[in-house]
């Protein structure tokens, strides 16, 4: 599939910076940046917020990566799932565990906290959301109020990016091909 909005050449000083940052982070220019270049204010605001999300530190980075990957698997965003798995490798997460996020319910490699985070990510992604009081209480107890707030915002951001990419027709760029352990396929019927 080609993007529903055509890619646009990143031009000017700002375009050169976006290309440079993208190549440093991913080894190539990220397709969402090329699609988003049609409305630079939206693209730059989204990128800026993404950088802020990455700087938050009340929740372990691995939990946030797993949450984002769970949202991507549920929504069906191959680009975000591919990138998330690539980032899991760069964060030195156990790829035997991270590779199972798309089928986390069937996998026996996750801790109880990781399972709660993955369930919360999916429950927030459901339309309407299906978060239960019991699940929220377990996470609040494990993460504290700041951590629970951060995790909720991270999952909200993941929904923004995954749903935007799917709607625009942006698909995987093969980032995870460099990972030593293949990414498990998503469960059938997992997209909303």
State the low-pLDDT regions, or none: none
The best one-word shape is globular
Number of helices: 8
For the record, the CATH class of the largest domain is: Mainly Alpha
Task: Report the CATH superfamily of the largest domain.
Answer: AhpD-like
Using the coordinates shown, work out and report the CATH topology of the largest domain: AhpD-like
Q: Give a short account of the largest sheet.
A: none
Radius of gyration: 16 Å
Beta-strand percentage range: under 5%
Mean pLDDT: 94
**Helix share, percent:** 55-70%
How do the helices and strands follow one another from N- to C-terminus?
HHHHHHHH
Note the main attributes of this structure.
192 residues; mainly alpha; AhpD-like; 2 domains; 0% strand
């Amino acid at each position: 599939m080609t993007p529903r909005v055509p890619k646009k050449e990143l031009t000017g000083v700002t375009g050169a910076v976006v290309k440079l940052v993208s190549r440093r982070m991913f080894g190539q220019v990220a397709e969402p940046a090329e699609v988003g270049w049609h409305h630079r204010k939206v693209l730059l605001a989204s990128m800026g917020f993404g950088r802020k999300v990455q700087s938050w530190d009340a929740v372990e980075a691995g939990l946030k990566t797993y949450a984002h990957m769970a949202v991507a698997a549920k929504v069906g965003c191959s680009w975000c799932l591919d990138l998330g798995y690539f980032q899991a490798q760069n964060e030195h997460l156990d790829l035997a565990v991270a590779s199972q996020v798309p089928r986390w319910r069937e996998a026996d490699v996750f801790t109880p906290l990781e399972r709660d985070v993955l369930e919360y990510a999916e429950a927030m992604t459901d339309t309407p959301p299906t978060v239960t009081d019991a699940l929220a209480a377990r996470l609040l107890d494990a993460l504290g109020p700041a951590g629970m707030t951060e995790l909720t915002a991270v999952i909200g951001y993941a929904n923004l990016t995954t749903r935007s990419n799917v709607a625009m027709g942006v698909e995987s760029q093969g980032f995870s091909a460099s990972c030593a352990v293949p990414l498990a396929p998503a469960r059938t019927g997992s997209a909303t």
